[in-house]
Write a structure and sequence with these properties.
With about 375 residues, this protein is of the alpha/beta class. A 6-stranded parallel sheet has the order 2-1-4-6-7-8, with helices on both faces. A 6-stranded parallel sheet has the order 11-10-9-12-13-14, with helices on both faces. A two-stranded parallel sheet has the order 3-5. The chain is built from 14 helices and 14 strands. It starts with 6 loop residues before the first strand and ends with a helix.
C-alpha cells in the first residue's frame, strides 16, 4: 500500500517557543516548512530601525501564497490567511494592546481551526479578553484547548541525583533577573548565609535592569552586585551559559528557584523538575499549575482575581518583594532543617513531568489537530 503523503505544516518562526511547543516533538506523518510573508519583513525592518517590536506587525500574519502548506501553525499570532491555521498562545490572543475588532473576527472564521492555550491561566485571560467581543466569544472558546508545553524527563530516576552535600545547592536561571525576583532572593540569601546556613547559590543571568515589571535600575543593580560580591565562595554568578551547561548545572543542583513577580509560563520549573530538582516558586500566573507544596514549595504572593501578581505600583512591588524575601527565607530554613525533603519532593516532581508533559502525547494531539484541520 502506498504511504500517505505527510501533512505539510507551515511555520513562520523557529525560535525557542516554536521549537519547544511545536517543532521539536516526535510527530508522525508531519513535515514543517518555513513560511515568510510581507508582514514579517515589515516587522523585522521596524525592529531594526527602532529597536522596538510593533505589536500589530509582530502578532498578525497575512499569508500571500509564499510556499505551500496544508495547514499553518503560529505562536502568539493571528492569521488573516484562508489557509487552515492554528495558533499556540502563552497569555492571550491577539497579543496586542487594544486589538482591532477584525482580529477577533479572524479568530472566529472557519480558517482558524484551533487555538491552543499553554495553560489554564492563559485560557482565563482569553476568556476575560473576549468579554468585550460577545459575538465572537462562544465561537472562539469552542476552538480553544489547553495544552501545556512538553518536557521530556532528563534522568531516569531520583536515585541518579547525588546526595545533598556539605552545602545545599540552589540555582537561579533566567533573563530579567529582577523581574524573576532576583533581588529579594539575594536579600534572603544574605540573611541566611550571613547567619551560617549551609547554602550555595548559582545565578545564570545578565542582571539586566529596566524591565517593565520590577522597574529596576542602578540602585537595585548595585545592591544585588554588592550581595554577590560579599559571598564569593557561596554565590556563583555566570552572565550566560550554553544550554548544555545550564542542564549540567541543574543536574548538580538540589533546588531550583523561580520566585518571579510575573512570567508568561515558567519553563525553568519544568526543566528543574525533569532533572529531579524541586522548585521554590511564587504562586502567580501559570506556576500553580506546574508546581505545588507536594512537589516543591510555593511563595504565596499578592494577586488579583485572575491569579496575576500585583506589581504595577511602587507600593505593590515593595509588598511583593517582602513576601518573596520572607517566605523564601522560611522555606530555605525548613530545607536546611530537613534536607531529606529535597529528594522526596524531587521524586514527585520528576513523576509529574513524566505523567503530565510527555512529548509523545503532545505530538499526537497536534498531529490530530492538523489532520482534522485539513478534513474540515
Amino acid at each position: 500500500m502506498k504511504a500517505a503523503r505527510p501533512i505539510t505544516v507551515g511555520i513562520t518562526g523557529t525560535g525557542y517557543p516554536e521549537k519547544r511547543n511545536i517543532i521539536d516533538l516526535p510527530h508522525e506523518g508531519v513535515r514543517f516548512v518555513r513560511h515568510r510573508d510581507p508582514v514579517q519583513w515589515l516587522d523585522l525592518l521596524y525592529f531594526k530601525a527602532t529597536g522596538r517590536i510593533n505589536d500589530s506587525l509582530h502578532a498578525v500574519h497575512n499569508h500571500l501564497g509564499f510556499g505551500r502548506a496544508d495547514v499553518l501553525h503560529f505562536f502568539n499570532t493571528v492569521s488573516l490567511s484562508r489557509t487552515p491555521w492554528v495558533s499556540t498562545f502563552e497569555t492571550r490572543i491577539p497579543r496586542i494592546y487594544q486589538p482591532k475588532r477584525r482580529l477577533f473576527e479572524a479568530l472566529a472564521r472557519p480558517a482558524c481551526k484551533r487555538l491552543i492555550a499553554m495553560s489554564q491561566r492563559a485560557l482565563r485571560i482569553q476568556d476575560r479578553l473576549l468579554d468585550a467581543h460577545h459575538d465572537a466569544k462562544s465561537e472562539v472558546l469552542a476552538k480553544t484547548i489547553v495544552l501545556h508545553p512538553a518536557q521530556r524527563v532528563l534522568i531516569g530516576s531520583i536515585v541518579e541525583k547525588n546526595p545533598v552535600g556539605e552545602h545545599i545547592k540552589l540555582a537561579f536561571v533566567g533573563h530579567e533577573f529582577f523581574r524573576k525576583g532576583g533581588l529579594p532572593t539575594l536579600r534572603a540569601l544574605d540573611r541566611l548565609i550571613g547567619g551560617g546556613a549551609p547554602l550555595h547559590l548559582t545565578i545564570v543571568s545578565d542582571l539586566l535592569t529596566g524591565d517593565h515589571v520590577s522597574q529596576s535600575g542602578a540602585s537595585e543593580l548595585n545592591e544585588a552586585s554588592a550581595i554577590i560580591a560579599r559571598y564569593p565562595e557561596r554565590i556563583t554568578h555566570h552572565h550566560q551559559l550554553p544550554n548544555a551547561e545550564v542542564m549540567a548545572l541543574l543536574r548538580r543542583t538540589d533546588v531550583v528557584l523561580l520566585p518571579t513577580l510575573h512570567d508568561s509560563y515558567g519553563y525553568s520549573v519544568l526543566e528543574g523538575q525533569a532533572l529531579g530538582c524541586p522548585v521554590i516558586s511564587t504562586d502567580v500566573a501559570a506556576l500553580p499549575e506546574i508546581n505545588d507544596d507536594e512537589r516543591g514549595w510555593m511563595i504565596h504572593a499578592p494577586k488579583d482575581e485572575l491569579g496575576e501578581g500585583l506589581w504595577r505600583t511602587k507600593e505593590a512591588r515593595m509588598l511583593f518583594s517582602t513576601a518573596i524575601e520572607e517566605q523564601l527565607t522560611a522555606h530555605l530554613e525548613a530545607i536546611v532543617r530537613d534536607p531529606a525533603s529535597i529528594k522526596v519532593k524531587g521524586a514527585r516532581a520528576l513523576e509529574r513531568i513524566r505523567k503530565d508533559h510527555d512529548p509523545g502525547d503532545r505530538a499526537r494531539v497536534l498531529d490530530g489537530i492538523y489532520a482534522e484541520a485539513i478534513r474540515t
